Amino acid sequence: MASNNKRKQFSLVYFVLMIFLVWIFNDMVFRPYIVKETEVTYNQFLDYLEGKKIGSVTLGADRIAFTLKDGAAGAPIVHNVVRVDDAQLVDRLITSGVSFSAVKQTEGLLQSLMGWVIAFLPLILIWYFMYKRMSGIGGGVLSFGKNNSQEIRGEKTGIKFSDVGGVGEAEVELKEIIEYLKEPKRFIHLGAKLPKGVLLVGPPGTGKTLLAKATAGEAGVSFFSLTGSSFVEMFVGVGAARVRDLFEQAKKKAPCIVFIDEIDAIGQARSTIAAMSGNSERENTLNQLLAEMDGFKPNTSVIIMAATNRPEILDQALVRPGRFDRQVQVTLPTAEGRLEILKIHAKDVPLEDEADLARMAKITPGFSGADLANIVNEASLLAVRRSADKVGMQDLDLAIERVVAGLQRKTTLSPEVREKVAYHEVGHALTALYLTHSDPVHKISIIPTAKGALGYTMQLPEEDQYLTSEDELRARMAVMLGGRAAELLIFGVSTTGASNDLERASMLARRMVTEFGMSRKLGPIRYSNPEGAYLQNQSSNRTDISQETLACIDEEIRELVTEAQNMSTSILTEHRAALDHISKTLQEKEIIMGDELRAIAKEISALERA
Ligand code: ADP
Ligand code: MG
Ligand code: ZN
Questions:
Q1: Which single residue of 114, 144, 147, 259 has CA 20 to 30 Å from 58?
Q2: Pocket perturbation via mutation, ligand 1, pick of 210, 329, 331, 334 by most ligand atoms within 8 A of CB
Q3: What DSSP designation does 449 have?
Q4: Pair 311, 162 in one domain
Q5: Is 559 in the active site?
Q6: Backbone dihedral angles phi then psi of residue 464, each to the nearest 5 degrees
Q7: CA 157 to ligand 1 center in whole angstroms
Q8: Residue 30 forms part of a structural domain
Q9: Bridge-partner residues for 102, per DSSP?
Q10: Ligand 1 contact via 167 beta carbon (within 6 Å)
Q11: Does the Cβ of 337 fall within 6 Å of ligand 1?
């Protein structure tokens, strides 16, 4: 693509140069023959006329043009005069005996057309080149809907399941598809019907694209892939044509896999997109896709796979039987899966003996495969930077933090702000430390992150959690409010830095009351919408909830949040010495690791007891 662009730029320069040359050539060759013009006054004209020097005269409505008899060699010089109101003009011309004629002085059609063309030529040229370039990139209008062979071409991916980690379930479900693609005859012989379409569903970065490629790789068949967004082009009709072309080519190469990545870009429910104008293109594409899927004979050994992280917005027509009727869930990896993925990506990375991938896997719940791949890559970059020949634990630790908190960036903050931030973060950390039900603190930092946080306290659960108890939720809320509690305790006011904490805490409290049935007053009733939208602003939509109940919900939420804040305040009051001491240490060191925090806190409480 880059060289293509360059070529176009080059030809543009070429073109301009050409025009310039032609112009110079013109000027040199035709200059002697080009009619020259000059302006004279009416007096001069009359003088010429009386002196009988004029050869011929052309009368216009408001101008007169004439040539002289003894013009120099070469082109005649046309003299122009503004015509004045001279009643004897014709008499004078007749007496002097020159030949004269009159013209209507409107521009000729051709002349005016030329004027327009010249005025618009630069515009037309610019437009033309932009247009060419655009269609060059998009494969757009000129190659109308015909996919360049480079765009849709079946490829042998060469990726195997051994390159994908932590997707056990999904792998099992795809095995059958692979069997079918390897030996379609066996299935057809027994009259077995396989799903036409398989939809991979899961959060971003969990390896859906990778898994689709691995499926093709394992079966040893061609892999045709397109992303949903590439269908939706600016030129009407291209999307649908592209779908048609994709399937046409795929059928020729059967058995094969057709993969449509990020299908939500075209597969959005039609009712929701109809409201917006200009999306009929997407709708056409979707209709074409549905038509193609229906048009397949069941024993064409082409399997259509698609991936999305938003299955709920897909058009129902897509997930009907005969289309994407099988869904394969690709979930975030468990600790075991994370270890597998880390190992896969660290395969070609020289690791120091003490670099413990198992520990890394343990402290990264919620990380996707892509995050983990990113961590390994970051770690090796860090190792390169410190000119080590192996990646050590320190690199991996720092890499995690980078991925979690965004790249660390040094900005200078005033000492007052730093003090407030330090107390705020230590408030979070100590609340977490002294509450039995909260996750252990991994790290406290007051180094601003690229994402704009002035500091952060990182907690890491010891294991993956699928169920959370009420006590744990209350503890979590208290920790969220710990920063604000510390600010109020020390400075008597809270800063805006606490507003995000406050928002998260209220959100959690609301869910506890309306979703988890954890309010004693309201009892185990779910008050939120079935879609899981919290009551927040939609409460007015729920006509079946009385005003009293709504007021009660608010009351309960307020109580939960206040309770949590009180919990934190009392912890911090009790451990005031630790709060002061650790905040000071944090201001000096900027980062305190969890173990260090626990050691300092222990020391101080031992001192206090003595
Ligand atoms: P998705 O399509 O689900 O958003 P991708 O397949 O594009 O995710 O994953 C992006 C990259 O992250 C992959 O190329 C791979 O390097 C890494 N990755 C993601 N999931 C896994 C996994 N389960 N095993 C190994 N690598 C993975
Ligand atoms: Mg993807
Ligand atoms: Zn905070």
A1: 114
A2: 210
A3: B
A4: yes
A5: no
A6: -65, 140
A7: 15
A8: yes
A9: 59
A10: yes
A11: no
